[in-house]
Amino acid sequence: MLSDDEIKHIEKLARIRLDNDAREKFKGQLSDIIEFVRTLQKVDTTGFESEARKRSFKPFLREGRAGGELERDKVLEQAPDTKNGFFKVPPVIDKD
Amino acid sequence: MELNNKSISELKKLYGQNSVKPSEVVQSCLDAISNKDNEIGAFLEVMPEDALRRARELEKESSEERALFGIPIAVKDNICTIDRHTTCASKILKGYKPPYNATVVERLLDAGAIIIGKTNMDEFAMGSSTENSAYQITRNPWNMEFAPGGSSGGSAAAVAAYMVPVALGSDTGGSIRQPASLCGVVGLKGTYGRVSRYGLVAFASSLDQIGPITRTVEDSAIVMNVISGRDTFDATTIPDKPGDLTVGLGRGVERLKIAVPGDLERWDIDEELKGILKDTVAKLKEAGANIEPVKFPDMEASIACYYVIANAEASSNLARYDGVKYAFRAEAESIGEMYERTRGEGFGDEVKRRILLGTYVLSAGYYDAYYNKAQQVRAMICSEFETIFSTYDLVMLPTVPGPSFRLGERIDNPIEMYLSDIFTTSANIAGIPALSVPAGFTRKGLPLGIQLMAGYTQEAKLLQGAEMLEKIYNFNKG
Amino acid sequence: MNNSSYETVIGLEVHAQLLTETKIFCSCKPEYGADPNTRICPVCMGLPGALPVLNRESVTMAIMMGLALRCDIAAVSEFSRKNYFYPDCPKNYQISMYDKPLCKNGFVEIETDNGPRNIRIERIHLEDDAGKMSHETGKDSLVDFNRCGVPLIEIVSRPDIRTGLEAVKYLVRVQQILRYLGICDGNLEEGSMRCDVNISLRPAGSTELGTKTEIKNLNSFKAIEKGVEFEVERQRRVLEEGGSIEQVTNLWDADSGRLVMMRSKEEANDYRYFPEPDLLPLEVDGEWIDGVRDMIPELPLEKERRFREEYMLSNYDSGVLCAEKGIADYFEIVAESTGLAKKSANWVMREIMRALKNLGCAIETFPVEPEKLAGLIALVEDGIISGSAGQDVFAEMIKSGADPKEVVKKLGLEQISDSSELENMVDSIIAAHPEEGERYREGKKKLLGFFVGQVMRESRGKANPELARNILIKKLGS
């Protein structure tokens, strides 16, 4: 079972805040799911490396050809808040 | 003439004879939508003006040769349509209008198709019932009390209810095939890399594929021909074209080697579905196919592997929804608070659960035990499928263990909901093509589906086999 | 305890922006100083559905640096996602190479008081840059995403550096090499080259590493030297007082000349790295590497060696001349056409460098081409003009870019080396100064200088002083 501290740590990493009720509910559900996926550890994968996933073609790369920039107004009109052509966000508080 | 009931191939014939016009077809579909969709709820947005304008433009051109000339199509709401809402059925993308079209949308338009609307889905494609939409419920057209499946439930319902001949869905662990099975339509997921993901809002990048949901196998091949092929905007697309996927149609199954998992009785499969499966085996043998039981990759391991990899990738893919650049932002005094509140209020429960799970399996101290182990299991499953397809042309099994379930029945039990993907996830894990064909109905009138899988890049064979099944089930409800 | 009881251990991480035509994963053209948010597209903005595709040129440039620093180039390398939330990072993950970097195990040679020494390079890898933020204390922050997706290479040294001065020497070398290769403009102030320093102290003679701290935001060589000294002193004091060092990240505040703590170990991020599923592993074959090898010019260290051997220049001279490739090339053309290496070196190091500084221009746009400077040096060496006239001619050449011979003619600066003309001049000067002539003959030989001066004045500096002197000696008698 996930502890309160564990789930709070994950919330922090994921930047998702749960209220207490949701945390209680999720704690149980997540623990069940983790229990379920833990069955993987019983699978014998000797001889199989994680990177051995099949890739049957040679990857391709982009050749440098400039272009495709978006018009700024088109991008900014989707933004919740802007100022002088910038995206505006609440203060990034420095931790001293 | 009810044009909305016509398949793509039928419409192509009518266009070829100049007996209908695109605007008439579009209007017929729009009428069907206004008659039925209030109740079904397949569409998040319908674009009547856009669709009719484009239909009339097409009428001025004499470009009937284009593969999808005048064909109305619905698009799942996680596929970007320029200047038109693309929300993934999430509150966090409410009002968002992308400044570009997905590659598949460009290809459909180039082929002469007409986009008629955006379909409902589980939020960010996470779910198997479409109940995780932040906006509305979608009902199964065969029984309004039942779920259409998911996550492409809106697309499957729209096609099943004759509102459009075709809709695009996306399949990460079964999200095309499962709702296709539950709604009695054909759903195809191609080989990973067959269809460009550029403009498909990512759930799990190494598993996601866009594919068509149609009423016939032939239509599936026609649409797949248009949307597949390398895209210079998606580095994971396969370089070579699959060739014309309709060529195998009508060839039958003579001498095809078809494998059936030997341990299906382990699973709680619906009795009527078992009967259909048995009957199908007999009929395929009559038609000349060679059918044998095989040891199938461990389905439980496959689904656990799927939940680790898909959610790990999702936790990263969905990090960008933070209130900075577009759509929903919860007001806050500091950036940290804005992140936590925007994401806390903007995402629904299932999405949060999966992001948290994905974050957990990637976090320090757990990576090897979960993510890395899952990748090893994935490599093993790939190799096991390779072995199977070195002997067999196709694998046949149910798409889902049973028919649809009542709305609300499974919503609070994530694990039970996850297990409805038991037969579908392995194709995503291995990156192989798979499709669901309607196989008949339960006595209560709910559709059942049979699934075929084929080897890497073998879509043509897959469709060839599917067409035979279609004939066997004689499922022609035009 | 005295100072020598601790050894300082320094490792450097250098980020260099590559001068590619487009960004690393999209087709936007990077431009420093462009209007905010005008150099962005769905890919570098990380809009929903957009996917990265790796740019070939950025890989070529990274391989170049790898070869220049004698690294092994990996046949297969891989991008991973580094997950962290910050508003300047639109996807909230950075795409960076993690456990499979492109280049490994190289070195950079620097000069120290104890002779040359190799600073080992652990790795060089590719990644995408973040955007830029401007903060006002207590107020909202503003974000410009133009810099997002500009290709960076990160060059990570082993902890082989012992002093702030060595750190600077290493960085100067790295900067020179980047500029020689033409892959980065190496501007610390504008941030096209950035440096993070890791510092720890350990008891002299110990081989174990102490707890390290990191300094970021060092945007000049002076800041780096000072920041390192400051932190070394601080750590020494803590250790001498019996304390222990905490693992922290500090920012250098150039205004106050102090370090400001950014985050402690407890706040250290859990980046949850995992392989980037949108990109396939990067394969680099021998052919590609050989092609890149052919593009690498002679590097500063080899050039310095060659200058010492070929032109018999001192360590100092060759070091100054080779600091910039353009200057070294310029010098070589001058030296080759005059055949006078040391004289050419002096001209370049004094006159040219002073002029470049005054004009604030680069050697590439300097108005006096090397061939013309060679012509000027020849005029002085052949005695056509005097050394001081040479300065005047040079000044004029900078203004007009004209050929030195034309300038000499225009200014009438040719030396009078015609003895009959000079003899007449000398005769009249001796006649005009009988008293001085008398005293000279009486033994005041110093007065010869007076007479030479008179000749120079009479000829307005054009008389060949050597010739005038000989004629005067002859005519004045003894």
Describe the protein's architecture and organization:
The complex is a heterotrimer of chains A (96), B (478) and C (478). Chain A is built from 3 helices and 2 strands. With 96 residues, chain A is mainly alpha-helical. Chain A has a domain at 1-42. A two-stranded antiparallel sheet of chain A has the order 1-2. The model of chain A has no long low-confidence stretch (mean pLDDT 86). Chain B contains 15 helices and 11 strands. In chain B, helix 2 runs antiparallel to helix 3 and helix 9 (299-317) packs across helix 12. Chain C folds into 3 domains: 3-291, no CATH class; 298-411, no CATH class; 419-476, Arc Repressor Mutant, subunit A (Orthogonal Bundle). Chain C contains 15 helices and 16 strands. In chain C, a hairpin with a 4-residue loop joins strand 13 and strand 14. Chain C starts with 5 loop residues before the first strand and ends with a helix. At the A-B interface, helix 1 and helix 2 of A face helix 9, helix 10, helix 11, helix 12 and helix 13 of B. Strand 2 of chain A pairs antiparallel with strand 9 (141-144) of chain C.
Structural class of chain A: mainly alpha
Query: What quaternary form is this?
Result: heterotrimer
Mean pLDDT of chain C comes to 92
Secondary-structure element order of chain A, N to C: HHHEE
Shape of chain A: flat
User: What's the helix count of chain C?
Assistant: 15
Number of strands of chain C: 16
Shape of chain C: elongated
- Percent of residues in helices of chain C comes to 40-55%
Distance between the termini of chain C: 76 Å
Portion of residues in beta strands of chain A equals 5-15%
Taking the alpha carbons of the first and last residues of chain A, their distance comes to 35 Å
C-alpha Rg of chain A (nearest Å): 23 Å
Q: Structural class of the secondary structure composition of chain C?
A: alpha+beta
Strand order in the largest sheet of chain C: 2-6-7-10-1-11-12-13-14
Question: In percent terms, what proportion of residues of chain C is strand?
Answer: 15-25%
Largest interface: A-B, 50 and 70 residues
Which parts of chain A are unreliable, with pLDDT below 50 for 5 consecutive residues or more?
none
Question: Major β-sheet of chain A, in short?
Answer: 2 strands, antiparallel
Residue share in helices of chain A? Answer: 25-40%
